[in-house]
Specification:
This protein is α/β, with parallel strands linked by helices and 321 residues long. The protein is built from 11 helices and 12 strands.
Length: 321
């Protein structure tokens, strides 16, 4: 019996040093029925050339290969184009500088096949440096190589810090927990059918990963597998390191989501989505960490520090956006 087709999609941009390793990690997948779709979003380095060099090997490995280059339009427009080209029952998202572990797609397909009420599944992410070497983060997310001294041994270790629930619980991937910000790690597999339920990606919501998670969580469940299935590369050009840009994108994506909530079809979405839309607060059931995060957002602050007064932790807001 033929297993479901998986469309592995890559929006590539200025990753000439990494894109071939990304493609090779997909070639090495133990799951066989994969098509590979790559769109180069107007790279100004040799990314497109590096992609083309891999075409003969890709055509031998994958059941379908589609490579395209175009003028730079941004990740949202590019993802829409990738999804239009995808023929698979499942979509595997991977950035053009990251790596998938060999059994990633196989394990994630197995889960979605057995759990039709879930639309997304994802595993843990190890951290790698610009050379592809496994590394860890200190408290400031600076790379270190001694595991015993690491504050965060995996990307999920970092993501868990500001969450008041277990990633293995039923709260993972719910709308009320995603409403403040995105915490879903990289390397996720998604049912393609879910994309028919919400508007296409748009520059009105430039944080495309957070936008996608919010929309998926309105209609279906998500699952976290507590196993390293992905390598998240940390290097000088990570987009997340541009604080001003990320703050603006966060603001625009949130404003877009508020507009979508005003036009919500309550007959189609899950109950917690209606609850958030009516009450306008996702932190009421999340405890102190979420309250403080929402306060920092509402008061226009980006960071807060913890100080102790008579041995009692006190939060002092310290940096304005």
């Amino acid at each position: 019996m033929q297993k479901p087709l998986v469309s592995a999609i890559i929006s590539a941009y200025n990753h000439e040093n990494y894109i071939q390793d990304t493609i090779k990690s997909l070639i090495a997948q133990t799951y066989k029925n994969i098509e590979l779709i790559i769109i180069d979003d107007g790279s100004v380095d040799s990314t497109w050339q590096k992609i083309q060099e891999m075409k003969p090997e890709c055509e031998q490995r994958f059941c379908n290969v589609y490579f395209e280059t175009k003028e730079n339009e941004g990740s949202c427009i590019t993802i829409n184009r990738l999804l239009e080209k995808a023929q698979g029952e499942y979509i595997y998202f991977i950035a053009s500088d990251d790596l998938a572990k060999p059994q990633a797609i196989e394990k994630e397909v197995e889960f979605l096949n057995q759990n039709p009420d879930f639309a997304l599944v994802v595993g843990n992410n190890e951290i790698i440096d610009f050379e592809g070497k496994a590394c860890y983060w200190d408290k400031d997310r600076k790379i270190i190589y001694e595991k015993s001294k690491a504050k965060y041994k995996t990307f999920v270790d970092f993501l868990k810090v500001k969450r008041g629930f277990s990633f293995l619980s039923d709260k993972f991937g719910t709308y009320e927990t995603l409403y403040y910000s995105n915490y879903i790690p990289n390397g996720y597999l998604v049912r393609k059918s879910i994309f028919s339920l919400f508007p296409p990606f748009s520059n009105d919501a430039p944080l495309e990963d957070w936008y996608m998670m919010l929309q998926i969580s309105k209609y279906s469940r998500m699952k976290y597998i507590d196993e390293i299935l992905f390598s998240y590369r940390w290097h000088n050009s990570n987009a997340i390191k541009n604080n001003e840009r990320m703050s603006l994108f966060n603001k625009l994506t949130r404003e877009n989501e508020e507009k979508l909530l005003k036009n919500l079809d309550t007959k189609k979405v899950l109950p917690d989505v209606i609850d958030v839309a009516k009450n306008g607060a996702c932190y009421k059931k999340q405890g102190l960490p979420f309250v403080l995060q929402m306060l920092t957002y509402k008061k226009g602050f980006e960071k807060h520090k913890i100080i102790k007064v008579f041995n009692i932790p006190v939060f002092r807001f310290s940096k304005k956006i």
